[in-house]
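ok, trying the design again with the full structure, not the truncated one.
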């Protein structure tokens, strides 16, 4: 018997089974052979929220939640956030290696070329009410791109896939900025490929009457680092949605819209918006202890705290705190930062949070940075979705190239009614 195996004894039958262990997992299909009798379907595992189930092998992002480590393709996010550009990191995440100078040039040119948006999509954005949530508009616009590029359904063709990837990376930034401009009632700024990806985004967002808009270098640098930190995070809810939809071979724009929809929830990517609203509601440092008491009584959550994977300080949060300091030097200090710091200080000493290993996550401080940059809270999740697009497309490409992957289709434990006869409406009580 191999040492790398698990022996399972089924006490219903007294039979024993040896199941191989590989990469610290057993293959769930190996459980199927374990049956109580010949009519039995076979054993399954039950895992709501897939908290202990690996659904894929991946070479993209490594997270060690206990140690607080995050790496893209082997490179620590600290080095990337310090030294790389968002588009270079996107290339690394999608294609697996850092680009040479000429590869980077081609990549930047191609992404820059696709940044224009078809007028149909611009008009679609204009049809939404001025106060529509930007994330709803973003999701709609992303899914609508599939109407313009029907060839994107040829998901098994690598050349076609590369074209769609360039389009997706390029267009999310334009769509995100247009969602904001529509919300504000200002005319759209078309892309300018003389600027960096991040610089161009800032221009599309904030250019008013200036002929030559130049993004503030500190804000551009900070947003670049922030977007690198948000670029991928292995199998989170949004990525899982991208993979589930991608596994049906739907076009990538539909899959991306689904991933963005998953990100929109306050337990996931909309936590940054929820954090800011929470800080505004708390208002002053004086109110922090009372708020913490209410959280401990179960009257709401401390938004921006806790993570499914990190049971230690989220490594992104440490870098984001540094970025916040740089930004506040330019924009002035937001008094809500003091509320956030006090929340963190108290929570990190409190047994409720310590015993549950609840630490600040990536969203705890990012909202304050965006607010300092004059971005409204409703746009925060869009500013998460834009950089996360490179992670989504990388995971989608990995899925399509992985011969072990199948149509995603989980099982259930049926606990409903047994077979019963249809009751005519007049006989129902
Ligand atoms: N505030 C207060 N208590 C919390 C919090 C929180 N933020 N997060 C978890 N807990 C408590 C739960 O009530 C539970 O307590 P119990 O054992 O007494 O019932 C325990 O900690 C475990 O919580 P779960 O919800 O089971 O943990 P899970 O891993 O499923 O949740 C999640 C992770 C959803 C992120 C959670 O911590 C949360 O809701 N955080 C607030 C929202 C947030 O910041 N989300 C952003 C995450 S980062 C991202 O998606 C980009």
């Amino acid at each position: 018997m191999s040492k790398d195996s698990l022996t399972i004894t089924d006490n219903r039958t007294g039979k024993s089974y040896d199941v191989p262990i590989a990469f610290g997992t057993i293959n769930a299909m190996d459980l199927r052979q374990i049956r109580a009798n010949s009519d039995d379907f076979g054993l399954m595992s039950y895992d709501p929220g897939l908290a202990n189930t690996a659904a894929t092998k991946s070479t993209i992002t490594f997270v060690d939640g206990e140690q607080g480590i995050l790496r893209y393709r082997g490179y620590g996010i600290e080095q990337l956030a310090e030294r790389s550009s968002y588009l270079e990191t996107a290339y690394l995440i999608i294609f697996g290696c850092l680009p040479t100078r000429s590869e980077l040039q081609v990549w930047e040119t191609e992404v820059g070329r696709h940044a224009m948006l078809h007028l149909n999509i611009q008009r679609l954005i204009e049809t939404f009410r001025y106060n529509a949530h930007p994330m709803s508009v973003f999701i709609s616009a992303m899914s609508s791109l599939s109407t313009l590029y029907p060839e994107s359904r040829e998901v098994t063709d690598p050349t076609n896939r590369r074209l769609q990837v360039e389009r997706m990376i390029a267009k999310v930034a334009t769509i995100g900025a247009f969602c904001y401009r529509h919300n504000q009632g200002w005319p759209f700024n078309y892309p300018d490929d003389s600027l960096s990806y991040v610089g161009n985004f800032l221009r599309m967002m904030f250019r008013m009457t200036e002929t030559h808009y130049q993004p503030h270098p500190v804000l551009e640098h900070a947003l670049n680092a922030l977007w690198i930190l948000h670029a991928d995070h292995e199998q989170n809810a949004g990525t899982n949605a991208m993979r589930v939809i991608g596994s049906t071979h739907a076009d990538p724009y539909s899959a991306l819209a689904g991933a963005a929809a998953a990100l929109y929830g306050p337990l996931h990517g909309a936590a940054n918006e929820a954090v800011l609203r929470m800080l505004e509601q708390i208002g002053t440092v004086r109110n922090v202890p009372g708020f913490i008491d209410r959280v401990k009584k179960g009257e709401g959550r401390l938004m921006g705290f806790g993570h499914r994977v990190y049971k230690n300080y989220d490594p992104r949060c440490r870098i984001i705190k540094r970025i916040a300091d740089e930004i506040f030097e330019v924009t002035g200090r937001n008094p809500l930062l003091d509320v956030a710091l006090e929340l963190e200080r108290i929570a990190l000493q409190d047994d409720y949070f310590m015993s549950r290993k609840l630490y600040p996550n990536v969203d705890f401080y990012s909202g304050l940075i965006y607010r300092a940059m004059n971005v409204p809270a409703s746009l925060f999740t869009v500013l998460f979705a834009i950089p996360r697009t490179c992670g989504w497309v990388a995971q989608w490409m990995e899925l399509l190239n992985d011969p072990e992957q199948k149509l995603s289709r989980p099982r259930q434990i049926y606990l409903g009614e047994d077979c019963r006869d249809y009751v005519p409406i007049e006989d129902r009580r």
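Keeping the full-length input from now on. The pocket of acetyl coenzyme *A is lined by residues 267-269, 271, 295, 301-308, 356, 358, 361-363 (CB under 6 Å).
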